[in-house]
């Protein structure tokens, strides 16, 4: 600043030239990652690298893998086949846990442990598939409505409002009852819960996309000539996924619980099929006398929901580079 | 700043009105924001045209229309003779290779969930014909070096860089397709003064290296003077004065330019005593309902009857060497220094 008015100049500050054109000190090397300059990194490869080092992710994956193995090969865990009516004995109803029957027996004298293991399949299939369907349908429509705006957005938003106006259990009851007997009851439960569940994901995705859309990097991508698909899936999706993941993982538990409610009302999974929801509904009548037949499937249900919430949490954090 | 006379950008009578609508279901237009209202200028290869004006005068809208991010209401933007405002689809995409942009805010103009390599490499993914897949990473690293960043930082995310470094990333992205024109929309106004200088110097170096033409939009007059060959002064969607940087700064002819220049801070205490201060009364009128005739007349101390009736055109007026849009244009050195 020693010579702010160069000779001949009209006195406008030209301090710019006095500052050397140097690069500021580089940001500190980030910890925990070893990305070399030779290997290309992207959001998803970095997220995967990051996830493998998160204890929460590892624990949740181990629990989910065990639950999945349990759903597909329940006989690995239980020597008793609860679908065989001869394993039940009414005279032993509500028996306390013993060496042969770890979780005791239920109201009909069936082995609670075996039923819990065999019930995992229906509950998890319903929970996971419904979550996937609602997230895909709601997310896709949400991103399109948020990005396109205008008539598309108005139309989609009004349609979701119609679905929101239907009380969800009543609506699911209606759908499941109407088509009862014409299709597999588990398939019906998934369809009924999906039809009523997607608007929630839609709203959250749409709101997140509208927020992301107004940012400059989207304008910059358009200026580069990026098409709608690239803007939606490379720019908007990664920046609006976080709230959707949170809601989807919480919904998973809600869907398993909703399946229980539908079963209780007589339109969901029906005996002799087994599901956790059904077991909880059955055990509820005699809860004060024999709480365990309700407690065990409820614990498994909570554990499943917890595992998926932990997984969702870990994935969401891994997709945010600022948290690394 | 070698300026050849080869013309690469021709803007003629550019108009952009944003409709004002009323009603929820049945929208009816009740007016229009006249953001850009009849702007014409040329740009030569390797030249810098600075555009100054206060907030809301239409500078950024002009940039958006030039970049074909907004369709103009009327007028043409010809790049090498072809109108980008009328181009569609594949032709528009090809034309975008020739005109790129550096944005104002380096904190929001980079996708926080993409690595620097992905951000600078994106132009190559969109315009696959520019660089074969195997070369792209090397090209991105070269670009990082050109803008003064460490090529080893290619796998980092934007939040790991400072504001000035991020703006360099934005510049590298703009350079990737080797355009002839770069529209800089307030590229330094979000940065600290010392960092501003670095970025301006970088832009000047790149201009010499690649013979770039800049449209440099800013509200900081000293920054514009430093980098520009020619300067256009905008008021309420129109150019009020257009000329070489020395003409505009030393011999401003339009009262608005004079008022604008009198507001530039002078760091020299002696110079500060000498210069005069022109303080404008009131706020700029609404661009939805601009005054009749000359748009500046409501705040002008020279305003007469004719100013309300007849719109002054942007032309060379007697006694001045460059174009101005004032019935009573006369040169007047506001700063009185040198």
Characteristic terms for this protein:
heterodimer, A: 324 residues, mainly alpha, MetI-like fold, B: 338 residues, alpha/beta, 11 helices, 12 strands, 23% strand
What's the CATH topology label of chain A? Answer: MetI-like fold
Assembly level: heterodimer
Mean of residue pLDDT of chain B?
Answer: 88
Provide the β-strand percentage band of chain B: 15-25%
Q: Provide the domain count of chain A.
A: 1
Strand content of chain A: under 5%
| Low-confidence runs of at least 5 consecutive residues of chain A | 1-37
Helix content of chain B: 25-40%
Q: Describe the global form of chain A.
A: globular
How would you explain this protein's 3D organization?
Chain B: GO terms for molecular function: ATP binding; ATP hydrolysis activity. The complex is a heterodimer of chains A (324) and B (338). Chain A is an all-alpha fold and 324 residues long. Helices cover 63% and strands 0% of the residues of chain A. Chain A has a single domain, classed as MetI-like fold (Orthogonal Bundle), CATH 1.10.3720.10. In chain A, α5 crosses α6. Chain A is globular and about 75 Å long. The two termini of chain A are 41 Å apart. Chain B is of the alpha/beta class and 338 residues long. Chains A and B meet through α7 and α8 of A and α2, α3, α5, α6 and α7 of B.
Question: Topology of this structure?
Answer:
The complex is a heterodimer of chains A (324) and B (338).
Chain A: H1 43-51, H2 55-72, H3 112-148, H4 150-165, H5 168-178, H6 185-213, H7 216-224, H8 228-265, H9 276-284, H10 292-318
Helix pairs in contact in A: 2-3, 2-10, 3-4, 3-6, 3-8, 3-10, 4-6, 5-6, 6-8, 8-9, 8-10, 9-10
Chain B: E1 7-22, E2 28-44, E3 48-52, H1 59-66, E4 74-79, E5 82-83, H2 89-96, E6 99-102, H3 116-126, H4 133-146, H5 163-175, E7 181-185, H6 193-210, E8 213-217, H7 221-227, E9 230-235, E10 238-244, H8 245-250, H9 255-262, H10 269-274, H11 305-309, E11 315-316, E12 323-324
Parallel strand pairs in B: 3-8, 3-9, 6-7, 7-8
Antiparallel strand pairs in B: 1-2, 1-4, 4-5, 9-10, 10-12, 11-12
